[in-house]
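pasting for ref. prot 1 ->
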Amino acid sequence: MKNAHERFGWLEFDKPLKDTRTRIRVALDRFIGESFDGKGTPGVAHVISVFGSDVDIGAIWAAIAGQDLLTVSGPGIEQRRVSLGKDPRVFRGTIAVAGRSRSIRHLMALSAQMADDTDVGRIIVSECDPEFVLYRISQRLGLPVHPSWAKWFWTMLKQHKRTKPLDGLGYKPIAIAGTKQEFLEWIGGAVKGKVIEIPDENDSIRWKPFRAAQLACSRHQRGDSARLGRPAGSSTQTPTSSLH
């Protein structure tokens, strides 16, 4: 894709050793994070996706495993120090590039909060599209929903002030506060009040096509694959689900 590199950021790992200093810098194409109040307080990274040599990616993997601080910067992201915290989920893969004798190594890492499939009262979603938000929450919490409810559900989230914008590169992420029980009560009340309706058909529900980049985080959260064949792109996929 022409000038795609201009949308990339950078991830750096700098660590002083006894007699030398380790400094690794790799290309960052996806990022989700949030900052905290307080000058000098490190932020949290929920998603990072980076490319580099085998040695560089190995060093970044070791830094993440050791809970070391990383420095991120890029278009729309002010340079900051971040950490993925304890128990991140890390995926590594190899990308063959035509014309290159050596393959490029790819690493994608998710924080424990991003990767956790349990109901902890907070869900991080990679895009703020109302239908994608409803789809992700339904998959995460096992909610019986229909795509036609997306606008209503988004309005409820806004009215109850349950959304918080996060920082993103390649994504437009938000954090959503709420539990499965709360959302089930919303749905039950709306169905009873005829604000939303349950369709009569019993076929599988077809959602609108989502970008592969949107679904990438969803798959890795569920642990569908520990191998990344290529970076998330702009292609689309149409997921299905069921109300029953």
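and prot 2 ->
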Amino acid sequence: MTNHWVDMINADVVMIMGGNPAEDHPIAMNWLTRTKERGAYIVHVDPRFNRTSSVADVFAKLRSGTDIAFVGGMIKYAIDNNRIQQEYVREYTNASWIVGDGYGFADGLFAGFDPAKKSYDRARWAFALDGQGQPRRDPTLKHPRSVFQLLKAHFSRYDVDTVCRITGTPKEAYLRVCDLYTSTYAPDRAGTWLYAMGTAQHSHGTQNVRSYAILQLLLGNIGVAGGGVNAMRGESNVQGSTDQGLNNDILPGYLKTPVEADTDLATYLKRVTPVTANAQSVNWLQNMPKYVVSLLKAWWGEHARADNDFAFSYLPRQGQGFQGEGYAFLALTHAMLAGDVKGLFCVGQNPAVGGANARLIRAGLDKLDWMVVVDLFEHETAGFWKRPDVDPTKIPTEVFVLPATSAVEKEGSIVNSGRWAQWRYRAVKPIAACRPDLEIIDGLAKAMKRAYEKDGVFPEPIRHLAWDYGHAADPHKVARELNGRYLADVAQPDGTRVAPGTQVAGFAQLRDDGSTMSGNWIYCGGYTEEGNLAARRDATDAPNGIGLYPKWAWVWPMNRRILYNRASVNRKGEPFNPRKWVIRWNAEKKAWEGDVPDGAMPPGAMNPFIMLASGVGQLYAPEMVDGPFPEHYEPVESPVRNPLSKTQSSPCAQVWQSTEFDKYGTAEVFPIVATTYRVSEHWQTGAMSRNMPWLAGLVPSAFVEIGTALAAREGIKSGDRVIVSSARGSIEVYALVTERFQPFFVDGRLIDEIGLPWHWGYAGIVSGDIANDLTASVGDPNTQIPETKVFLCNLRKKTPA
């Protein structure tokens, strides 16, 4: 999130798209309820009328996979009706920048597309530069190749009728959404945009989010109270786990993973450290060398020295990946099936149920030599070898199940959707032989170090690992390491000196000479000499009274509650909205007031988006692998032809076709759109909730939700057993017939959509068929996240035996 949950009370309009917080984030929904009580409007856009829809002021249905068309029309509406915050757009975005002659767009494709490689030559999308190497600008925004004019031209095709023809949204509802939400362009109003997996799990999921960001920038809704683009995380610590670099392509703090071409530290730093010729850009990430070296010192201590590149050679390098397709989830599961992966650690995951194309995943587990599962219960992944219809004697995989502890049985911090690091204490002791994750990983690391002292290929990274969290691993020691400390006597700018062992006060103090260490630079400032700031529980608000609560827990970075908050003020430091100011410049004190500012320099020429090399918001983003602007494409499986162009689906999408499990359906055989969702009574794959009798009893059976019109045509009523099939196979579930799914009138014909909760499997107190047996191995080209939120299917009532 750019903002945080409490800040939702400052919004005048709340847009929820691709999420259902009333059921999936019920406690956080409290802040949206308060927002509405204060007079705000809630807008909900979703394929299904659900409990969030029931409390919304405006509900608009859309066909799954058509977010960009919907938001693209809103962008056109804002531009056509001059509902953009002119000063904000001119000063704080790249709207005025001139794009070079290489850029072009025609029939769904941007310039530079190579159909053989399914990729673009992104150099074609570069900006036009002046003699000093800076992008040329036109402050009037009238130049035909300015970003603003190209943006206007790109979305000119997204008129209301075309959008509704694609999305199936009723025109009256769509116009109401456009009018209400774009009203937040006024400086004294704000709109916040909330999304979740309904946005992300698509073959163009990253561009879905991009479309939200473009609209929010045009409206001036980034950096302000009650604004932002805010991801609703599906687990209490998903944000924290991502911060720690659990994705395959990042290190802790979102540092980039080395690649094979990074032969030494200098080469790597040259590649990953952004450079800009723009004198108005702070370009904060020019400090990348300080964060990288401090991380290497945290990991390898005295063995990370200047004369050995601070042990940079110990880091693994990314190559082309599994079968040349990278290292993300879909590539990993296909590599397992191919026998290229011999062992798997599965910690807090249940991919046999939760992963796309789940039958493929379970077949891949059959090919492993060994697997270690760390979880609370023996779920479907742990017990894949004894699933229905398989012979365990023919599966060679050796499975080790390590019983873990629940959240209330261990101490440590979690980081919520709003980046708040909150310390939690152990409530009860673990049962039986269950151990906290930290203790399990600590034991594994110590055992590996002992083993590698005797033997091993390339043993130095393990032998030299700086691993000392106590005889019984102490979460406070881990948190202190993440924050970082001085390793030498270091002079400060004011002439004072800091002794070795002193906790670093913030990431501005990190150095690239080996005199500091930090396990995660964005967590600097969270566990200082003042103590564990994540444990604070002071509910006193800041003087501006907008719900910052600066002494409640701690927020990365540097306890900044609203990111890019310098965009909430003009070049003089005056708030665009004095009534709900986030920061403001006190000329008498020569200091900022309010939230921790995104850069302490005085107001003036410096641009507010300090983490971007450009310093400005990216209406045009040539870094994206599938286009500098979002473009509507149909999902890989779709019942209609793309009305906007001859390019049917994302030309860069990762579409796997290498195995017997990688099959794709057509509308002639599978005419119904399907999506997946969650219910409040169950949690994710059900590994926890289906093992709790009081939860299992509330919703004991897998079901498919079917609209009344489709059910009537198929002769189905609630409680019937039905077969739902896709090109990947079929499942048998109960029917739940409701009014919540209504047909979509799309491109001149009716399209039906159904919904499948994905909480069931063959383990636990209650069981049911697996919804993800029907989903496909399709990935977003930027992130490779699977397209599990839309696929084609058919259904029929089960015939009695």
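The chain has a mean pLDDT of 96.
The two ends are 52 Å apart (CA to CA).
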